[in-house]
Specification:
The complex is a heterodimer of chains A (135) and B (425).
Chain A lengths: L36 H11 L8 H10 L3 H4 L19 H13 L7 H5 L4 H12 L3
Chain B lengths: L2 H10 L20 E5 L3 H13 L5 E5 L4 E3 L4 H5 L9 E3 L1 H5 L4 E3 L3 E5 L4 E4 L4 E3 L2 E4 L3 E3 L7 H6 L11 H12 L5 E6 L9 H16 L4 E6 L8 H12 L3 E4 L4 E5 L4 E4 L5 E2 L2 E4 L3 E3 L1 H5 L12 E2 L4 E2 L5 E3 L14 H19 L9 E9 L5 E11 L4 E4 L5 E2 L6 H18 L1
Classes of the chains: A mainly alpha (135), B alpha/beta (425).
């Protein structure tokens, strides 16, 4: 196992500054109280390029898909030789058919018949589309 | 391969995650800063998902004193001699290298919720725009007289957080005479990981059955009955361990004598054992207590479940075992991982001034070994209930294994590898 490097402090960005006008300015980096969250919002609206064109709907489906990740890997990328299958890149129709069969109890499983019943049709369709779009 | 090697090969498998690196394009020196305190299932997941869900635009700092992550889930396999602690140990380095999280190896001394900063053990402080606390649990030593000193002397090792005590408890079991008694005393719910004491009792029995068959396991439960997967555990105990394992309910420990190996109960008769594994009641981690955030029975932190923001302090989000959990939801590593994702998405949305997801979801699966080969599970799905402002189990979903099985052991190890990669890979 690799050791965590020795403690380092400060606000040095861990990703190189590529000069983009990011949407978020930190109150922490400025004079206390100089910038409110409302001001951040205005600045973001002016600045464009919000989190690489992510929309609220994008964020919500990523959050929904993250409920699968503990067993199926982040964004459906299960670890190698995982007994739980990879979902990333799975064809939408296959995902929907299998989830339907889990819900109906016609597809054998240990856990998934119990989990699949927890998601409604709309959620299941959003998940199918999301995982189909993952590499 | 012997049994231990089989389990090792299942659990170890492949260690690398197939998670692509994700670096933000728009990160600037002045990006909003989120400080995450605690690198367990909740905190590590939060650090990674804050970076992922913000497309790398948030400055994320993780403060954790331990050099590496050690998983409490699966640590009963170390107690039972089937795995080594190193098998459950994962580096934090992936968070830095693959996800651009700043790692600080230290503990937090105090929180200034007004000035929005945390002070570090080594000195200095860090300002934050949002703070995520995942402080885990700490024992309530005072609840059982004599336990703190017996623990300090190394006589009684609760081993409820994975680490050297886990190995120490196995060593006690390994050193026990054949014909000895291993006794585990379980506190009243809620505590971390409801099935874990019963899993530990099962694996201790499996070890003794194999190596010291004249010995006995006593399960001394403060609760009325086994609190998780009761039918499955009891069936396994009857089928696999017979007289080796005895279960007693209504055994609430009130004091111990570490030197004599004796535990006394509120009502039940005293028990003297060769190895005494007394689990104290637990409460939210010390940092949450000191910061005055544990407002429920002076034990747990109350949060707004749409964001996991503390009900007491703005801009402080609290995850995992330390919160007053939603009804029928366990304190588990999987739940902490799920909390972290909802909190991370809410923080990203709030900083962007976007509407919050009105219907976040949580999933949970707890696998428990009942022997070296066979596993059972409990699963649930939770949806946010707007009127009651809490998560509730989705009706008709969830459940437990129909029966214990070898095949579920494969899923248990897949769960461990995938969730570790989901947190840290």
């Amino acid at each position: 196992m690799k050791q965590v490097p020795s403690a380092h402090f400060g606000t040095t960005p861990v990703v190189p500054d590529r000069g983009g006008r990011g949407p978020w300015r930190a109150a922490a980096a400025r004079r206390p109280g100089a910038l409110t969250l409302a001001a951040i919002g205005v600045w973001a609206a002016m600045g464009g390029a919000v989190a690489a064109a992510q929309t609220p709907a994008d964020l919500q489906v990523r959050s929904l898909a993250a409920t699968c990740a503990a067993c199926h890997g982040t964004d459906g990328n299960a670890v190698a030789s995982s007994a739980t299958p990879r979902l990333a890149g799975l064809d939408q129709d296959t995902f929907l058919r299998e989830m339907h069969e889990f819900r109906e109890g016609t597809r054998p499983s240990t856990v998934m018949q119990q989990i699949a019943k927890g998601f409604n049709d709309d959620q299941t369709e959003r998940l199918a589309k999301y995982f189909a779009g993952q590499k | 391969m012997n049994r231990r090697e089989v389990v090792r090969s299942l659990v170890l498998g492949s260690a690398t995650a197939g998670v692509p690196a994700c670096f933000g394009i728009w990160t600037r020196r002045s990006a909003a800063k989120v400080v995450v305190v605690g690198g367990g299932y909740g905190g590590a997941t939060a650090a990674k998902y804050l970076r992922l869900l913000s497309n790398g635009t948030l400055d994320v700092v993780l403060i954790e004193p331990a050099p590496q992550f050690i998983s409490a889930p699966l640590s009963n396999l170390v107690v039972g001699g089937l795995l080594q602690l190193t098998d459950l140990t994962v580096s934090y380095e992936g968070l830095r290298r693959r996800h651009g999280v700043t790692l600080i190896r230290d503990h937090v001394r105090s929180i200034d919720a007004v000035g929005r900063s945390v002070s570090l053990g080594a000195g200095g402080s860090i300002r934050y725009d949002k703070l995520v606390l995942s402080p885990g649990i700490d024992p309530m030593w005072g609840a059982i007289e004599g336990l703190e000193s017996a623990h300090a002397q190394g006589r009684i090792l609760p081993a409820w957080t994975a680490g050297p005590e886990t190995t120490g408890l196995h060593a006690q079991l390994a050193a026990m005479r054949d014909g000895g008694i291993f006794a585990i005393a379980i506190p009243e719910t809620p505590y971390r990981c409801p099935p874990a004491p019963y899993e530990r009792a099962s694996l201790a029995a499996a070890y003794l059955l194999r190596y010291k068959p004249k010995s006995k396991v006593l399960v001394l439960d403060a609760n009325q009955d086994v609190v998780a997967m009761a039918g499955l555990f009891k069936q396994a105990w009857r089928d696999l361990y017979g007289d080796i394992l005895e279960y007693r309910n209504h055994c609430k420990a009130i004091s111990v004598d570490g030197a004599a190996g004796t535990v006394r109960f509120e009502v039940a008769d005293d028990v003297t054992a060769d190895v005494l594994n007394v689990l104290p009641p637990v409460r939210a981690g010390t940092l949450a207590q000191q910061a005055g955030l544990a407002n429920v029975n002076a034990r747990w932190c109350e949060v707004d479940f749409l964001t996991f923001e503390s009900k007491l302090a703005k801009h402080i989000h609290i995850l995992g075992d330390s919160i007053q959990a939603a009804p029928q939801s366990p304190k588990s590593g999987h739940m902490a991982n799920a909390h972290a994702k909802v909190a991370a998405a809410a923080i990203v949305a709030e900083l962007q001034e976007w509407p919050l997801d009105p219907a976040p979801m949580l999933t949970n699966t707890c696998y428990s070994y009942v022997s070296a080969e066979e596993v059972i599970h409990s699963a649930a799905v939770y949806g946010y209930h707007a009127e009651e402002r809490t998560f509730k189990p989705v009706a008709g979903a969830g459940g437990v294994s129909p029966r214990r099985s070898v095949s579920e052991a494969q899923f248990a190890t897949a769960w461990a590898h995938n969730i570790w990669a989901d947190m840290l890979g």
